[in-house]
Design brief:
By secondary structure, the chain is mainly α. It has one domain. The termini are far apart. The model has no long low-confidence stretch (mean pLDDT 80). This is NEUROFILAMENT TRIPLET M PROTEIN-LIKE PROTEIN. Keywords: Coiled coil.
Length: 109
């Protein structure tokens, strides 16, 4: 029996060592991932800085160019028209809901 107990203890010891090695490997991988993430963050910050430098500078002459001003006006008019259509649709839906609510409350009474 002494041989079996010794063999079991050795197996347990080997399993513990293997488990500890696995932990070490996982920790190393975690550190590597953290380092990679830091590198990516730094690269992202550099890209943002480059993007800010590459921003399109507004030309003050555009404010005096009639063609560009007309284009801006047309663009705004199109947006306003779409919004007014949405507003009308919402108002219709609201009226329908209010009418249904008044009819249901009238029937309940």
């Amino acid at each position: 029996m002494g041989d079996n107990e010794g063999a079991e203890k050795r197996e347990e010891h080997e399993q513990k060592e293997k488990h500890e090695k696995d932990k070490d490997v996982k920790e190393e991988k975690g550190e590597e991932k953290a380092n990679e993430k830091k590198k990516k963050d730094k690269e992202g910050k550099k890209d943002k800085e480059d993007g800010e430098k590459g921003k399109k500078n507004k030309n003050p002459g555009d404010k005096k160019d009639p063609a560009k001003l007309r284009a801006k006006l047309q663009k705004l008019d199109a947006k306003m028209e779409a919004l007014s259509k949405k507003r009308e649709d919402i108002l219709k839906l609201l009226q329908e809901v209010e009418i249904n609510d008044t009819q249901e409350s009238g029937e309940a009474a």
